[in-house]
Amino acid sequence: MPPGVPGQRSESRPRFAGDEALHFREFARARLALRGLLVCLIPLGVLLHDLTAHSLGAKLAWMLGIAVLIAYPLGYLLAFRCPRCRAPFLATGSVRDFLGLGRVLWGKRCGTCGRAAGG
């Protein structure tokens, strides 16, 4: 069949282009939310330092609040699977993944097959 014939799948276009684009947009939103939270927590922590330094209840509420706010986008990012190889997108299979915050915040390719995020 010549290129451009209806019904023929192009090699340059993914099979489920709409679904993959939607999943990668959600991935990008979760990453942006995590980055924004990390940036906002520093000034907020400085402002609330005096309150949390003198009260155990406020200190516990602050730590629980941080954990809950960060857990949702981080959990989504760590559970995100590559559409090509179905492996965790941000995992490389090495020991450095244990403390790989840089990979979570800035990784652009699948750790297993090398597929570009969103591409």
Structure in words:
It is a single chain. With 119 residues, the protein is mainly alpha-helical. The chain has one domain. It is built from three helices and no strands. Helix 1 runs antiparallel to helix 2. It is elongated, with a radius of gyration of 20 Å.
Helical proportion, percent range: 55-70%
- Termini separation (Å)? 26 Å
Uncertain ranges? 4-16
Series of H and E elements = HHH
Number of helical segments with 4 or more residues: 3
Count the E strands: 0
Mean pLDDT: 77
> For the CA atoms, what is the radius of gyration?
20 Å
- C-alpha geometry: elongated
Main beta sheet: none
Domain count, please report it: 1
Q: Give the strand content.
A: under 5%
Helix and strand content put the structural class at mainly alpha
